[in-house]
Amino acid sequence: MCCSNALFAQQLIPAWGGGADQTDLSFGFSFSYVSNDFKIVKKPDWRKPFFDTDNQMYVTDSLNSISSKSSPGFAVGFITRYSITDHLEVRVTPSLVFADRSVSYKYKTASQDVDKLVQTTTVDFPLSLKLKSDRIGNMRAYLLGGMKFSTSVGSKKNADINSGALDKLLKNNKNYSSYEAGLGFDIYFEYFKLSPEIKVSNSLGNLLVQENHPFSSPISKLSSHTIMFSLYFE
């Protein structure tokens, strides 16, 4: 009797979600928390002091470390999804991302220590495949993976053109691509579907714009590592 009552109760669960999964094509919007940092590959001679050829003098002491701490940010965006099957769909989720990154330089002389902030606002264009589980009541789990193209807007390209060696900015390429993977849940409410999701992305290639100054010269390669927690509403 208990088993039959449980089965009967499951059949009475309404197919909530505001019709988000009732059609092949649907739309929505998203809010995201972003955590950004750099993966750094140093040159073999990265520790050596920097010699400023313009002033014919050393302007820094030898380096002890170069590192990047996670920096917070946020993003807003839209979602367009198209169902291929009941368990597979393709998603496009363009978003505007406000997230800075920084690189910390520690020198033998502690008074020279400095953090260089890379201020970026990017427009992201992710294209993902979403693999969904069976729906149990008003919830289902999913995995996703795909590629993302990013372009920077409002970057300070020539802001330091006349500045001294110690005032130079650490510049990144304007356009780059990333691969990403994540997981989440579709939760069906009466009038909409909510999808909390966590996603990790890593850039491809080298983001660093190579220049001859104390903050670019010791580095061989920079790549972006991003963790994004999002809430999607459809």
Brief characterization of the structure:
It contains 1 helix and 14 strands; from the N terminus they run H-E-E-E-E-E-E-E-E-E-E-E-E-E-E. It is mainly beta. The protein has a domain of 155 residues: Porin, CATH 2.40.160.20.
Helix content: under 10%
What is the CA-based Rg, rounded?
A: 24 Å
Low-confidence stretches: 3-12
How is the main sheet built?
9 strands, antiparallel
Query: Which fold name fills CATH's third level, the topology of the domain at 16-42 and 67-155 and 174-201 and 223-233?
Result: Porin
Class of the domain at 16-42 and 67-155 and 174-201 and 223-233 in CATH? Mainly Beta
Strand content: over 45%
The helix count comes to 1
Shape descriptor? elongated
Would you tell me the structural class of the helices and strands? mainly beta
CATH architecture of the domain at 16-42 and 67-155 and 174-201 and 223-233: Beta Barrel
The ordered string of helix (H) and strand (E) elements is HEEEEEEEEEEEEEE
> What is the residue-averaged pLDDT?
87
Q: How many beta strands in the DSSP annotation?
A: 14
Ends distance:
38 Å
